[in-house]
Write a structure and sequence with these properties.
Number of strands: 13
CATH architecture of the largest domain: 3-Layer(aba) Sandwich
CATH class of the largest domain: Alpha Beta
Distance between the termini: 11 Å
CATH superfamily of the largest domain: Glycogen Phosphorylase B
Helix content: 40-55%
Largest sheet: 7 strands, parallel
Strand order of the largest sheet: 3-2-1-4-5-6-7
Number of domains: 2
Order of helices and strands: EHEHEHEHEHHEHEHEHEHEHEHEEHHH
């Protein structure tokens, strides 16, 4: 082929979330002489990955955010887009709430459609109910169904749909070499954040109810009571950040909790940690847990994390119904018995190395066009 196959990726926005990070990992490593990604987002704001997408040869298009009352305008935007962009043969949808709308529009114009599940819950409240209603038809609309785990697939598409040949699990792969433990990087990052002599617990995730930061602070408060050298490193941003800062302040932990904001050097920050704690209420997979394991960290995580994410023997699951003291016990036991070593082969053998996932996805896309 003289020109690459252009695949349209659909997102809400291209900031540093789990699904967005996963698709960017693939985009950086896929053979762009054969496959090129373009993006449709539901925001007018500039996002974290926009500049990189442009540098890699991708284009970014924008549609209005779906609000229900603008259903007709939303649908017309999609139909107009497909009408003036006949170059697309494949649309890969990561926005599930409106996937049954835009995937159906894509099929009308002859595109092959993929719906991709990255989670196992829509949260709670009226918004979650509305999303559940909107996303139910996806299993009947999309030509192919992708998920980051079996649990994520069954939650969005139903068990019966996941038993059919059009369902595929695409691992949330990472560039494992970036995360291999390195003493030099560890020392440099610990000096940067003044962490020498500290026991560093790390967490990566946006400040959102799903990530359960409230409970994480409760856990850390108990850890610090038992080890006053403990420091909590929180990487990410989000709507709940101010309320979590307030809780940290009220707990008297200001000097022991570091808010880094969104960072582009997350692989290096994993090196500075001694422990990764991940008490999410739910996860489709939890790509940051794969990254933590790839960096050789012991991990204590909630029992809601899918089994596919438990790649090494360095992960202990604890029930969310357990007390913070129970989590503290698991954390201190893990660190006492642990010696940090390379986990490269374990991660790669479980299918989480980016090269393997890129090759599979590339051949899948090319097969659809042929």
């Amino acid at each position: 082929m003289s020109n690459p196959v252009r695949v349209l990726q659909v997102f809400a926005e291209m900031n540093r979330g789990g699904a967005e990070t996963m698709i960017m990992n693939l985009y950086r490593n896929i053979d762009r002489s054969k496959i090129q990604f373009d993006f449709i987002v539901h925001t007018e704001e500039k996002c974290a990955f926009d500049d990189e997408i442009n540098k890699l040869g991708g284009r970014i298009f924008r549609v209005p955010k779906y609000k229900g009352i603008n259903h007709i305008i939303y649908l017309k935007n999609w139909e107009q887009f497909f009408n003036i962009h006949p170059e697309y043969k494949i649309v890969h949808g990561h926005v599930r709430s409106t996937a049954s709308i835009y995937l159906k529009a894509a099929q009308k114009y002859g595109l092959t459609t993929i719906a991709h599940s990255h989670n196992t819950s829509s949260g709670s409240g009226f918004s979650a109910i509305a999303k559940s209603v909107l996303q139910y038809p996806i299993r009947y609309v999309a030509d192919y169904l992708f998920a980051c785990s079996e649990a994520a697939g069954e939650w969005l598409f139903g068990k019966q749909a996941c038993k059919k040949g059009r369902f595929h699990i695409l691992n949330n792969a990472i560039d494992v070499r970036k995360f291999i433990f390195n003493d030099y990087i560890r020392d440099r990052k610990r000096k940067e954040f003044q962490l020498n002599g500290k026991f560093v617990i790390g967490h990566v995730g946006r400040f959102h109810p799903q990530k359960n930061h409230e409970f994480l602070i409760d856990i850390f408060k108990d850890v610090h009571a038992k080890n006053d050298n403990a420091v909590l490193l929180l990487i990410g941003e989000g709507n709940l950040q101010d309320s979590i800062r307030e809780k940290v302040n009220n707990s008297g932990l200001n000097s022991n909790v570091i808010f880094t904001g969104v960072r582009s050097d997350t692989p290096e920050l994993f090196q500075a940690m001694d422990m990764f704690v991940f008490p999410s209420l739910y996860e489709g997979l939890g790509i940051v847990l794969i990254e933590a394991q790839a960096s050789g960290l012991p991990c204590v995580v909630s029992d809601t994390i899918p089994k596919e994410a438990l790649v090494t023997n360095n992960v202990e699951q604890v029930s969310l119904t357990n007390s913070p003291e129970s989590w503290t016990e698991a954390i201190l036991q893990q660190i006492d018995k642990y010696e940090r070593t390379s986990t490269y082969e374990e991660i790669k053998n479980r299918g989480y190395d980016i090269e393997d996932s890129c090759m599979w996805l590339q051949e899948f896309y090319l097969g659809l066009v042929k």
